[in-house]
Write a structure and sequence with these properties.
The protein is α/β, with parallel strands linked by helices and 380 residues long. Helix content is 27%, strand content 32%.
């Protein structure tokens, strides 16, 4: 099958990795390829650590084990696979074409590769502009630019040595342009789903005029494939509920400080037996006498004033749960009925629940960040 000529607004994308983030990224991007809410990305290459991972990945594109049948992919048919010598490195790599047809009827060919050096795919051979690093590897993601020939690398997790952003919170133009002009190679990281949910909720309140003086948050998180990696707890929440370490405590405080807010913050996390759909339960000390209605009104005003409808929603008709938020693109959905306030020595103690799809919502937030990065790169 011949590849179709790409519309000018579509950016060729490579994905390094074949786990949950890679699969959900592909579903989102096929939505953009002729879907009802276009985003400017078209997946071109998925790089695997092993050839044996390719077949199950191809099957999952049409019917995802979490989200069911794809709304945007009508067929995914493997083409002839072959081995080739790597141009610059020892060994060979395997390449297989996957004919993918979007629900809109638009076709494309997705290149599936696997080789001896999965971190050093030559993205430039496929004219890839941006690489999403989704392996969880600690290797420097800038290598996709400096070695692989891509123009930008985006890590789908916080990365210690990279500027880390939450779309709609700390992604102002000056910070992002500075990161994109880094002489070591343009690379950025998308903060975690939990950090995104907490900072989006807090930032919305702060923008609405609510003064938070201190905060805590309990995170109840759906299981992930990497539970045992994080806490050396092999089996993880596949079998039981357990306490799980979280980087949100450090990241939330850092991001709020970047925005000029010095707020003492602590957090803890529990993993539960759930495919997707997680919830944060923050407790806040707010300066002055504040009611539940004040909090809701402040959030509404900030959402409208700062154009945050894609990032945060307030649910007032139903009480959300993990099924309600499944497949929702917002970074966090506030349960209005859960908001509680009590007076405390002239100030206010408040608590609420914010729900999020830790896969679909996180990837949507990452792609919003990527969209802004590409807009800025075109203008630079």
């Amino acid at each position: 099958m011949a590849e179709t000529l790409l519309p000018e607004h579509l950016v060729p994308i490579g994905i390094n990795g074949s786990g949950r983030m890679a699969k959900v990224l592909l579903q989102h991007m096929m939505d953009g390829y002729g879907g009802p809410d276009p985003i400017p990305f078209l997946p071109k290459v998925v790089n695997f650590r092993s050839k044996r991972d390719i077949d199950p990945f191809s099957r999952d594109l049409e019917f995802d084990p979490v989200y069911g049948r794809s709304d945007y992919i009508s067929s995914a048919k493997p083409m002839n696979g072959h081995y080739e010598k790597h141009r610059r490195l020892p060994g060979k790599f395997f390449e297989e074409g996957l004919q993918v047809v979007a629900r809109s009827g638009l076709p494309t060919v997705l290149h599936l590769t696997a080789g001896d050096n999965p971190e050093l795919t030559e993205w430039s051979n496929f004219k890839v502009h941006t690489v999403f690093e989704a392996t969880g590897s600690k290797a420097n993601p800038r290598m996709h630019v400096t070695e692989g020939g891509a123009k930008l690398a985006i890590v789908t997790a916080p990365f210690e040595d990279l500027p880390t952003f939450v779309s709609g919170v700390n992604d102002d133009e000056l910070r992002m342009i500075t990161a994109l002009r880094d002489p070591k190679g343009p690379a950025i990281a998308a903060s975690s789903c939990s950090t995104g949910a907490i900072t989006t909720a807090f930032n919305t309140l702060l923008r609405g005029g609510i003064e938070i003086t201190s905060a805590t948050a309990e995170i109840t998180h759906a299981r992930t494939q990497s539970d045992y990696v994080v806490d050396n707890n092999r089996g993880g929440s596949v079998f039981h509920t357990h306490r799980n370490s979280t980087g949100a405590q450090k990241e939330v405080a850092r991001i709020l400080a970047e925005n000029g807010y010095d707020i003492p913050f602590i957090a803890d996390s529990t993993r539960v037996l759930e495919q997707t759909g997680s919830v944060i339960t923050p407790s806040l000390v707010i300066r002055g006498a504040i009611t539940t209605d004040n909090i809701i009104e402040a959030m509404r005003e900030a959402i409208e004033a700062h154009k945050l409808r894609d990032h945060i929603a307030i649910e007032e008709r139903h009480s959300p749960d993990s099924l309600f938020v499944k497949g929702r693109p917002e970074t966090v959905i506030i349960d209005a009925a859960s908001i509680q306030t009590v007076p405390m020595h002239g100030d206010t103690l408040a608590m609420f629940k914010g729900w999020f799809d830790n896969e679909w919502g996180y990837v949507a937030n990452t792609l919003r960040l990527a969209t802004k990065a590409h807009q800025l790169m075109r203008e630079m």
